[in-house]
Design brief:
Blueprint: H1 2-21, H2 28-48, H3 54-60, H4 70-88, H5 99-103, H6 110-142, H7 149-168, H8 178-199
Helix pairs in contact: 1-7, 4-6, 6-7, 7-8
């Protein structure tokens, strides 16, 4: 999907930026080797399936032109419907899991969806989760992830999850919050280890 492509691109750049922030050196040999292998696999698949490029490229070409994609227009229409319901019920909302009764399809933005269903206070509470993750991720970045590769990987996954969530509204799938919980646990461990070393 287009969202997956954007997530992959953003995730790759973020991983590279975080990797360099930790003071690690990029091994260009392995990077080029990986790209060559991926390109070779794609070419190999396209030999057996001549339409391998056609459908994805047709779909990806609409990323910068959402008006040319029926699914993009549908998502924009759903967001517009959601904003109209917010205008009617800004504080109370329609009730948890009730938005589908009005919009027929889930709104592809968790913040707007939460506001539609749970009202303004519900949206503030839910958005607070993103704010907490943002500040912890920012602190990890400033501290160079405490020189912990696992923590850095968790932060990358959380950034990808939040970014993708803005387009796919998958926050209702609880397992997607697992990387965020693991990041918080690893963050606490790194903080504890740092304090223990300082006390010693």
């Amino acid at each position: 999907s287009r969202s997956s492509l954007l997530i992959a691109i953003v995730g790759s750049f973020i991983f590279l930026a975080f990797y360099i922030k930790m003071g690690r050196k990029v091994n260009y040999y392995y990077l080029i080797l990986y790209l060559v292998i991926q390109y070779s696999l794609i070419q190999l698949i396209s030999i057996n399936n001549t339409e391998f490029y056609d459908k994805p490229m047709d779909r990806y070409s609409t990323i910068l032109e959402p008006g040319s994609s029926p699914s993009s227009l549908q998502r924009l229409d759903l967001i517009d419907k959601g904003l109209r319901y917010i205008d009617k019920n800004p504080f109370v909302g329609l009730g948890l899991e009730n938005s589908n009764l009005y919009t027929k399809i889930s709104i592809h933005n968790p913040i707007i969806l939460t506001w539609v269903e749970n009202g303004f206070l519900g949206m503030i509470g839910f958005s607070g989760l993103y704010v907490v993750l943002f500040f912890i991720g920012l602190k990890c970045y400033r501290m160079k992830f405490f020189d912990d590769d696992i923590l850095m990987a968790y932060v990358v996954v959380v950034v990808i999850m939040v970014f993708g969530d803005m387009f796919m509204a998958n926050s209702y799938k609880r397992f997607l919050w697992l990387p965020a919980l693991l990041m918080l646990i690893r963050y606490r461990q790194c903080i504890s280890d740092k304090l223990q070393i300082a006390n010693d």
